[in-house]
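tl;dr need the bound structure. longer version: we got a ligand (NAP) that a collaborator sent over and nobodys looked at where it sits. i said id run it. heres the input, straight from their email, havent touched it
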Amino acid sequence: MVHRTISKVAFIGTGIMGSAIAGRILDAGYALSVSTRTPEKAKDLVERGATWAESVAEAVSDADVVFTMVGYPEDVEDVYLSSRGVLACAKKGAWLIDLTTSSPELARDIHGAAEIEGLHAFDCPVTGGQSGALAGTLTLIIGAFEADLPGELLELLSCFSAKKCFFGHAGAGQSAKLCNQVSLASCMVGYADALALAGQAGLDVGAVLDLMGSGTGGSGASTALGPKSVAGDYAPGFLSEHLRKDIGLALAHSEEFGLSMPGAETAYALFDLLCQIGGSRLGTQAITLLYADEAEGAAAGLDWSLAQQLDECEGEGCHCDHHHDGDGCCGHHQH
Ligand code: NAP
């Protein structure tokens, strides 16, 4: 065991990204306690030496640093602000770092509430995907000033990142991450449009993707995910429902400034449709299935009849704000 002032680390939320990041922290020699909603998802980490905690409270009570990597802003709120959450149970002086892609406003609220409790919280969403998390090459998008973070904390962050971008104040990390997601969203739609056109024009789709990658028409998204779309590999590195969440957060953020983002609006509509017809838990590269024939979509688990049910639902005046995930109507209304 390496001796450091920061020795005990807690990690909440060991899904696709969290388990990979927590693994890097473990490998770097920190004592790690883990807690997550589905215990099975922490099994590998526990076998590698992490300590399982039954609750958030138990995981964080003696930790010097707490990382959270959950799914949605509501999960972040629950983990930090509930009566047995991180703010109530972490030890004084602990550093609390939220890696989830979440709302800038919530990040500011948590930062402020933590200060009152004698804790230090900042937002630190990441980019680089599951492969970057496994390789320890993520880019960190940090809602704090570098000068305000102790050297040992920066060292800890370095065990799963290759680059740190500092945006100064609480919430600014989330704001910058949402800018990244807005660009990603249009890149996804761009390459899906291009591959659909290539297919219809009778071209070798893989060759078109290759051509795009050698010029300015390609993107990080088309390079990393285009080959998976072409190969029909829709296993999630990044869940479609999470990109829909991110674009929704970005659109809400843009409304604060009266800014219209037509590219993001189009991408939101497409990812929302993908989620509603059963694609929530597919990787974002499954967006190309929206252009494919129905049989190909069905083979990947999509059900286009749900889209028709949705249309009928809307036709009958269902103007609710609930998501219609996979089951046609939201079920909150009688039609
Ligand atoms: P994920 O696999 O769904 O992981 C999230 C984990 O958090 C799940 O295991 C979930 O439990 C757990 N969780 C949710 N609420 C919890 C709570 N209240 N208490 C304890 N555990 C809780 O998703 P992911 O791909 O790792 O993504 C996590 C976050 O990172 C998302 O905000 C995503 O947008 C962002 N992100 C993802 C990527 C990527 O490439 N995957 C890249 C950058 C950023 P269950 O297993 O029970 O659902």
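gonna send this back to them w/ a short note. Confidence is low (pLDDT under 50) at residues 317-335.
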